[in-house]
Design brief:
The chain has five helices and no strands. By secondary structure, the protein is an all-alpha fold. The two termini are about 25 Å apart.
Length: about 120
């Protein structure tokens, strides 16, 4: 199991089932892969902040992925795609349910694993 799998397993269940309803064009291949763990990490960061659930969610994702070896450039592209997803798709989902059921725990796991918090 890769290093992203166990952190985001709950999130992928909902995300894989719902997919990208009206998929915009993304910069990164990770956002075109419906089973991608990495894209969900960034989506969870955006949901946390844009949904007012966790004001440090994006910073947590950025810091954790940096420690995972993701370059700053790639991280910026992934974050751009996550913001594109939010603008194009967030109204099609129950964002509160996604946060509570799929994002809150993975964000906390990232803090604990990569940021020692």
């Amino acid at each position: 199991m890769n290093k992203f799998s166990w952190v985001l397993s709950p999130a992928l269940t909902i995300f894989s089932v719902t997919g990208f309803a009206s998929a915009p064009i993304y910069q990164t291949p990770e956002f075109n892969d419906k089973s991608g763990h990495l894209s969900m990490m960034y989506i969870c960061g955006v949901i946390g902040e844009k949904g007012d659930y966790d004001s440090r969610a994006i910073a947590t994702v950025a810091a954790a992925t940096s420690k995972m070896g993701i370059t700053e450039k790639k991280s910026g592209q992934l974050m751009g795609d996550a913001l594109t997803w939010w603008e194009a798709s967030h109204e099609q989902y129950d964002i509160t349910a996604m946060w509570e059921g799929s994002c809150k725990e993975p964000i906390n796991n990232m803090r604990r694993m990569y940021l020692n918090k």
